[in-house]
């Protein structure tokens, strides 16, 4: 059903109004002017016929047989009765059957006092007369010839009036038919114009809802089957867009605008996601900075308090014996050494995280490196009753920064020594994984809680803070391990076992 203010109804209404208005104007013009126009044309025709007969008289052809056809055509085509009189009153030519009537007309025309003259010339006079008996109007032309003869021409105007009436009736019938046909044609044309516009309207509605899959398809609106197929299959993009008329070109511009909007919105969303990540990263960095300052303050607070306390004790000579003074000095030196180590680790970690530490990749013997590190810590492990298992590790070469890898292995071994319990075993092992060598350090003891496995690589994170404080740990070692492996583009991780914990790194062998 068409909407009250739809474009289709407006076009159809305008089309009908224009058609009906045109027919009405033609009917009014026919009614008011057609008969007068016919009369004027009839007057001109009678004068022209008179001129023809006058020329024939002047040339001497009027009475010849060659003029018969011309004379008959004048009478028949103009529906005119003509009588040509010679100077002596005899009839030269006549098309009238009733000569008495024509003679009466001649007498009336000659002796009428106030004739209704509608046109006149030097040799003729055109009169309009009404027959009161019959109620009919006539045009009568009375003219003279060069030889002194007379010509009388008479035609009825009633046929002109009837022709005008018939013409108006016929125009009215044709007008009604034209309005009906025009309505159908107008509806078809309106649909041809408004259907693609309606399609564009629906596309614009979908674009308002950010649905950019809608496409204008030139010609697809022509049949209901095509429109239903597009609606059901949703494959507008498979139709080639070949702009034809202005509406098709507008539709193509809609398609291009849809693509550009979709791409722009996609880019904006991508930029928004990136911006959101940057904001989250900034917030995370701010939180890490606050946490870092808090952790550093906390880690430095205890050794500074101890150093200050024992230094004040020495200054006030609380214990004068050499043994006490040596003890105070050892505590101060030990705490200062812990602070020094922590600061060095923080500087190293900072350089790694900000990319200031240059990675010098080289191929080196990882077996020799592990042997050197374990030999340096063997005495400490013996003092703690720890058994070291290296076994017959095959000689292996890997790619990496040798000094950084030494720092990683040292941190792993130190972490294993400090957390070794139960059977007190530490085991180094290799595992070949394609072009990678996995180096693992295992120690017996308690497992790391599952919720802490991902957090142990975070700076200052401690699973057991009391135990970490006991052996002087700062919670930075594993953060340094993670930063070193990230700087070389390699992986590291931790795995819980039933009887302990295994830390591993992977290095390239080729």
Description:
This protein is α+β, with helices and mostly antiparallel strands. About 55% of the residues lie in helices and about 15% in strands. It has helices spanning about 5-60, 70-80, 100-110, 160-210, 225-235, 245-315, 320-355, 365-385, 400-420, 465-470, 475-485; strands at about 80-85, 90-95, 115-120, 125-130, 135-145, 150-155, 360-365, 385-390, 395-400, 425-435, 435-445, 490-495, 500-510. Strands 2-1-6-5-4-3 form a 6-stranded antiparallel beta sheet, sandwiched between helices. Strands 8-10-11-13-12 form a 5-stranded mixed beta sheet. The protein has a two-stranded antiparallel ribbon with strand order 7-9. The longest helix is centred in the middle third of the chain and has 70 residues, at about 245-315.
């Amino acid at each position: 059903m068409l909407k009250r203010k739809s474009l289709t109804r407006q076009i159809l209404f305008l089309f009908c109004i224009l058609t009906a208005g045109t027919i009405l104007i033609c009917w009014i013009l026919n009614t008011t002017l057609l008969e007068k126009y016919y009369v004027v044309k009839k007057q001109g025709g009678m004068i022209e016929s008179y001129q023809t007969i006058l020329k024939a008289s002047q040339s001497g052809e009027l009475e010849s047989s060659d003029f018969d056809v011309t004379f008959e055509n004048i009478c028949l085509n103009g529906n005119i009765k003509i009588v040509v009189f010679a100077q002596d009153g005899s009839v030269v030519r006549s098309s009238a059957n009733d000569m008495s009537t024509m003679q009466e007309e001649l007498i009336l025309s000659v002796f009428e006092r106030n004739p209704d003259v509608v046109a006149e010339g030097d040799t003729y006079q055109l009169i309009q007369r009404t027959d009161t008996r019959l109620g009919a109007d006539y045009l009568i032309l009375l003219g003279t010839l060069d030889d002194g003869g007379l010509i009388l021409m008479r035609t009825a105007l009633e046929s002109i009036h009837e022709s005008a009436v018939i013409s108006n009736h016929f125009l009215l019938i044709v007008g009604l038919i034209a309005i009906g046909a025009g309505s159908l044609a107008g509806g078809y044309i309106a649909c041809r114009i408004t259907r693609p516009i309606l399609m564009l309207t629906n596309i614009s509605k979908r674009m308002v809802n950010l649905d950019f899959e809608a496409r204008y398809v030139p010609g697809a609106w022509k049949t209901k089957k095509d429109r239903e197929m597009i609606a059901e299959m949703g494959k507008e993009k498979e139709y080639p867009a070949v702009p034809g008329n202005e509406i098709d070109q507008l539709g193509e511009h809609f398609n291009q605008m849809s693509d550009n909007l979709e791409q722009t919105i996609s880019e904006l969303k991508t930029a928004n996601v990136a911006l959101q990540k940057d904001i989250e990263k900034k917030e995370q960095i701010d939180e890490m900075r606050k946490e870092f300052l808090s952790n550093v303050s906390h880690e430095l607070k205890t050794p500074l308090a101890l150093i200050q306390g024992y230094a004040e004790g020495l200054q006030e000579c609380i214990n004068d014996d050499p043994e006490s003074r040596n003890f105070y000095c050892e505590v101060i030196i030990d705490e200062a050494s812990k602070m020094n180590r922590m600061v060095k680790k923080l500087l190293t970690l900072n350089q790694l995280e900000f990319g200031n530490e240059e990675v010098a990749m080289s191929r080196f013997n990882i077996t020799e490196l592990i042997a050197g590190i374990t030999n340096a810590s063997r005495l400490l492990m013996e003092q703690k009753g720890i058994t070291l298992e290296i076994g017959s590790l095959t000689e292996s070469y890997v790619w990496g920064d040798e000094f950084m890898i030494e720092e990683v292995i040292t941190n792993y071994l130190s972490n294993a020594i400090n957390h070794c319990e139960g059977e007190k075993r530490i085991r180094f092992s290799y595992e070949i994984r394609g072009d990678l060598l996995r180096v693992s350090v295992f120690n017996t003891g308690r497992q790391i809680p599952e919720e802490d496995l991902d957090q142990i690589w975070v700076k200052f994170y401690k699973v057991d803070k009391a135990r970490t404080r006991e052996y002087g740990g700062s919670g930075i070692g594993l953060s340094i391990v993670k930063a070193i492996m990230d700087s070389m583009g390699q992986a590291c991780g931790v795995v819980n076992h039933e009887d302990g914990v295994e830390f591993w790194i992977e290095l390239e062998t080729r």
